[in-house]
C-alpha cells in the first residue's frame, strides 16, 4: 500500500516465505523461529502436511507433501499472507470459530482445522483410516464452497495450499510447464488433454 511501511512481522515473514519457496534448508528452521503464540504444534504440522497432500496428491508429478506445502501454509498463516491475520468481522464468527480466535480477533486457522477435523471423525483424525479422513475433509470442502455459503476458514487454508504448491519448485517446474520469456511468437499452438498451464504465464494459471 502506498505510503505504508512494512512491519517487522511482514518483513520477517516475507523473508521466511521467500526462502521456503526457493527451497532453502528446512522450513522447520523458520517455524521454530516464530513467536510462541504463532508456532504450530508438531501435531498441527503433521495434519497440515497430510491435508495439503489430500488436496494435491502425488500423480505423475510429486504432490503437496513432497513440495513442503504444509509448512509453507503454516508460515503464511503466521505472517498474515492474504489477510489471514486480520480480525474477523462479527458476522463471520460462529460459536465454533470463536474459541479459536486470537486476542487481536484473528483466527488461528491451524488450531481451527485441527479441532474441526477431530470433531468431524469423532476423535483423533490422524489415527483414522485414510478413507474416513478424506471423507471428513471433503465434507468440510463442500460446506465451504457450497452455493451461497458465507465466509469460511477452509477457503483461506485451501487457497494457501494451492498458492504454496504452484509457486514451489515442484509445482512451478514439474506440474506446470515453463517457457523462458520472451521466447518466440507462435500464433497457434496445439492443445490437448495433457497440455499444462505455464508457470510463468499467470493469465493462464487458475488457482481455483
Structural class, by secondary structure, is mainly alpha
Question: Quick one: how many beta strands?
Answer: 0
How would a crystallographer describe the biggest sheet?
none
Question: What is the chain-wise order of helices and strands?
Answer: HHHHHHHHH
Q: Which stretches are poorly predicted, pLDDT < 50 over at least 5 residues?
A: 1-13, 22-29
Mean pLDDT: 79
- Beta-strand content: under 5%
Quickly count the helices.
Answer: 9
- What overall geometry do the principal axes of the alpha carbons give? globular
- Give the fraction of residues assigned to helices: 40-55%
Distance between the termini: 26 Å
Overview features:
208 residues; mainly alpha; 9 helices; 0% strand; disordered N terminus
Question: What does this molecule look like?
Answer:
- There is one protein chain.
- Helices cover 47% and strands 0% of the residues.
- It has nine helices and no strands.
- The protein has helices at residues 8-21, 27-32, 42-55, 69-78, 95-98, 109-121, 130-144, 153-166, 169-175.
- Helix 1 (8-21) packs antiparallel against helix 4, helix 3 (42-55) crosses helix 4 (69-78) and helix 3 (42-55) crosses helix 6 (109-121).
- Mean pLDDT is 79; it is low at 1-13 and 22-29.
Amino acid at each position: 500500500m502506498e505510503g505504508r511501511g512494512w512491519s517487522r512481522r511482514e518483513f520477517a515473514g516475507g523473508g521466511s516465505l521467500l526462502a521456503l519457496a526457493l527451497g532453502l534448508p528446512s522450513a522447520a528452521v523458520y517455524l521454530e523461529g516464530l513467536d510462541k503464540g504463532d508456532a504450530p504444534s508438531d501435531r498441527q504440522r503433521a495434519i497440515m502436511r497430510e491435508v495439503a497432500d489430500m488436496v494435491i496428491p502425488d500423480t505423475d508429478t510429486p504432490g503437496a507433501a513432497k513440495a513442503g506445502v504444509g509448512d509453507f501454509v503454516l508460515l503464511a498463516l503466521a505472517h498474515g499472507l492474504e489477510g489471514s491475520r486480520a480480525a474477523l468481522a462479527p458476522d463471520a464468527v460462529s460459536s465454533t470459530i470463536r474459541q479459536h480466535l486470537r486476542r487481536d480477533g484473528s483466527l488461528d486457522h491451524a488450531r481451527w482445522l485441527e479441532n474441526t477435523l477431530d470433531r468431524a471423525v469423532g476423535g483423533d483424525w490422524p489415527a483414522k483410516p485414510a478413507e474416513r479422513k478424506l471423507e471428513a475433509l471433503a465434507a468440510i470442502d463442500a460446506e465451504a464452497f457450497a452455493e451461497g455459503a458465507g465466509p469460511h476458514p477452509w477457503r483461506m487454508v485451501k487457497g494457501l495450499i494451492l498458492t504454496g504448491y504452484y509457486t514451489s519448485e515442484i509445482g512451478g517446474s514439474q506440474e506446470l510447464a515453463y517457457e523462458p520469456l520472451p521466447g518466440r511468437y507462435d500464433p497457434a499452438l496445439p492443445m490437448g488433454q495433457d497440455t499444462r498451464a505455464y508457470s510463468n504465464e499467470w493469465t493462464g494459471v487458475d488457482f481455483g
